[in-house]
Amino acid sequence: MKILVLIKEVPDMQKVEFDSERGRVNRANAPAEINPFDENALETACELKKAREDVDVTALTMGPPRAEGSLRIAYARGADHGILLTDAKFGGADTCATSKTLAAAIRKKGGYDLILCGEKSVDGDTAQVGAEVAEFLGIPHCYYVEKIDKLTSGHIEVTAEDLWGMKQTRRMPLPALVSVTKNITTPKLPTVRRRLESREIEIERMNLSSLEDILTPEETGAKGSPTKVNKVVIPPEVKRESVVFREEPDGFMDALASVFLEKGLV
Question: How many Cβ atoms are within 10 Å of 139's Cβ, its own excluded?
């Protein structure tokens, strides 16, 4: 069984800068790491690998050449292979163009039974890419999965959270895509041996030319992105004030109404 894990290299959001003119996040000077939610997806894949003898795990990321480092970390954590999808023409992609590019690479490689990813990334926080990848591939998908109940050669059964705090059990035919929450497992630290091995492994690289029979330049990067950011503005810090009311219910309501009138809210 071949499992593909979609990972994203994200910047330290405390040190990231915003390019207001171009409407993009400038990641160049911020330290990078694997998106925490994707670490849970990777650990889930590695646990399935330990439970079944026939599982092969590949980590795939789209990003600049430096993202190769995150794939080496993914290997150290238990992946068998790493694929870096990198090309300057992929730059400026929104979730739609990113998903279409990832789906093209997956279609090109072929043969994956299960695709895992984190529910969202800490930099974009859209929770869209996984579902869009599945739609472009034409396969079933399930979001906010907190447990994989059963995995066979033909089907997967999962338990997912919904917006109302209820649980949902879903059974899907393979191939399928599953987006996991942080509740599904706890990522483990890599061993020293795997860290050392990760320095020597070969990372496969793919670019736009690798996908030319599937993807056109107009479908990826900024050209293929229907979302256009006109301006990035960092809101000024707002000084917040608080008032403590120690009145009885009637007095509290009168005091509250007075404040609302003073602020022009009513």
Answer: 19
